[in-house]
Write a structure and sequence with these properties.
alpha+beta; Gyrase A, domain 2; 29% strand; RNA_pol_sigma_r3/r4-like; HTH_bacterioopsin
Length: 247
């Protein structure tokens, strides 16, 4: 739950951040939060989180927001890519979802569809607050109980401020992973955080062994995403690795 975040003990990187900041102050006239920091992988749940009612009714899809924009005062449009096969059920859910209105099918592909929706006043969001407290959104996708999000904060105070926002609005926060970000810690070149996590788990559990130690269905259950999303994510991750390594 939300209180779990503030009760977790981890090394406070403030001292190292200050030392690094002192070392770079003479090279840049602007404030820097680029060194160190905290990376948090969280699962967020609330009855009125953006698209949460649809996600609960249609668990066999994975939704990844592409971008959002405010086109006029108090009207925010969000473009999302939906992976899976239950598109009809997803569209039915959009029609009755109280967190969105005016759904539009923007594009169609064999393995995914792109939709545009407008936020309603009822929708609970967290991206603006992430920026307001000084954090940065690294990754965002749906899971069976809401949204899985990866955020980077410059220090513990920013993380606690985000947690306080969630607690005040009764947003459930489950901590999957917390780590202190190292300098230059960008993961594997060309891979997103979700792709890197998938390949890491697949490798550790023997997906690439003969015979396989874990199936795609089991990977989907392990990572709490749809089975079709696992297949597409594996294909894209391996393709990105090949393009990066062989180019």
């Amino acid at each position: 739950m939300a209180d779990a975040l503030v009760s977790i003990d981890f090394a406070d990187p403030t001292e190292s951040l200050e030392k690094l900041s002192d070392a770079t102050d003479d090279r840049s006239p602007i404030q820097s939060q680029a060194d160190g920091g905290i990376v948090a992988q969280l699962r967020l749940d609330h009855p009125d989180l953006f698209l949460a009612p649809t996600l609960r009714d249609v668990p066999d899809v994975t939704v990844e927001p592409d971008y959002w924009t405010t086109v006029e005062p108090e009207r925010t449009l969000v473009f999302v890519t939906v992976y899976g096969t239950a598109f009809d059920q997803f569209e039915t859910g959009l029609e009755t979802d109280p967190t969105v209105t005016d759904p539009v099918l923007v594009d169609r592909y064999p393995d995914r569809r792109v939709y545009r929706v407008a936020l309603t006043d009822r929708a609970v969001t967290f991206t603006a607050t992430t920026a307001a407290v000084g954090g940065r959104l690294l990754d965002l996708s749906s899971c069976r109980n809401g949204w899985q999000v990866q955020l980077r904060f410059a220090d513990r105070e920013q993380l606690v401020a985000f947690n306080d926002y969630c607690r005040d609005r009764e947003i459930s926060v489950t901590v999957d992973h917390l780590r202190v970000s190292d300098d230059g810690d960008d993961g594997v070149v060309a891979l997103t955080a979700k792709q890197q996590e998938l390949l890491t788990v697949a490798h550790e559990e023997g997906y690439f062994d003969v015979p396989r130690g874990i199936s795609q269905d089991e990977l989907a259950d392990r990572l709490d995403v749809s089975k079709s999303a696992i297949s597409q994510r594996l294909r894209r991750a391996i393709g990105e690795l090949c393009a990066s390594s062989l180019s």
